[in-house]
């Protein structure tokens, strides 16, 4: 099937930058959309940024527009999220997700990587 593994999380000072990556393996050619979600303690998981239609369309949550940039690298097997001007409220576990053309919801998820932004 499809496996997603996140990496690159860590501790960063407010205003700083951090890049998280997601490496996909398995039947990756079947994937149509890939995205990043995040979940802060006590809060619902939310969409952050993602590619749709094999990367043709890029979407961002309003809270991260102008600060975060999503990109595919390594022959589309790696999904990166460049996070700039980080704020304490960006602190969360960041999850990589993917879905096939015929999936309604995101069907595949990574284990997440912790991003902590300090003041």
Fraction in helix? under 10%
Distance between the termini: 41 Å
**Cα gyration radius (Å):** 13 Å
* Count of runs of 4 or more consecutive helical residues: 0
Quick take:
29% of the residues are buried. The protein has strands at 2-7, 10-13, 18-26, 31-39, 46-52, 57-60, 68-73, 78-83, 92-100, 108-109, 113-118. With 119 residues, the chain is mostly beta strands.
Explain what you see.
The chain has strands at 2-7, 10-13, 18-26, 31-39, 46-52, 57-60, 68-73, 78-83, 92-100, 108-109, 113-118. The chain has 119 residues and is mainly beta. It is globular, with a radius of gyration of 13 Å.
Question: What's the helix and strand layout?
Answer:
Blueprint: E1 2-7, E2 10-13, E3 18-26, E4 31-39, E5 46-52, E6 57-60, E7 68-73, E8 78-83, E9 92-100, E10 108-109, E11 113-118
Parallel strand pairs: 2-11
Antiparallel strand pairs: 1-3, 3-8, 4-5, 4-9, 5-6, 7-8, 9-10, 9-11
